[in-house]
Design brief:
With 138 residues, this protein is α/β, with parallel strands linked by helices. The protein is built from 5 helices and 5 strands, in the order ββαααβαβαβ.
């Protein structure tokens, strides 16, 4: 449901941060507050023909995981020891943020081609599990 709020033209991603069976924060991919979203301004990545999984800095938007972590920080909510649920496996930038935020486990609906992210999660002891959703929930 959170992913449906995304304004990304390429991929709708949603994230939940949960601890003790309580949702602490949510996020979806899109531009920062107060600036034009890609559905209005156009997609920089499409215009430059940047392949998926490369050059993350060439985008107006933040990733869903980043927005969920930022929302928790903005509202003073500790996410240490939490679980991140996300529609897609985090990229290497998001994996570093998750590790430093104290997220202990990541459960995703589909994988993402970023081997560095997987390596860093493994080294940090963050468990990652892909749990594919059934089509009846879409």
């Amino acid at each position: 449901m959170v992913a449906k709020r995304s304004t990304c033209l390429r991929r709708q991603v949603g994230a939940l941060i949960v601890k003790d069976k309580r949702i602490l924060s949510t996020g979806y991919n899109g531009a920062p507050a107060g600036i034009s979203h890609c559905d209005v301004a156009g997609c920089v990545r499409e215009r430059l023909q940047v392949p998926s999984g490369e050059r993350h800095e060439l985008c107006r938007g933040l990733h869903a995981e980043q927005n969920a972590i930022i929302q928790a920080a903005l509202h003073g909510v500790s996410i240490e020891g939490s679980v991140l649920y996300c529609t897609h496996e985090p990229c290497s930038v998001c994996s570093k943020m998750c590790i430093n935020a104290g997220i202990k486990s990541v459960i995703v609906g589909s994988d993402y081609p970023d081997e560095l992210a997987r390596e860093m999660f493994k080294e940090a002891g963050v468990k990652v599990r892909v749990k594919r959703r059934s089509k009846e929930h879409d």
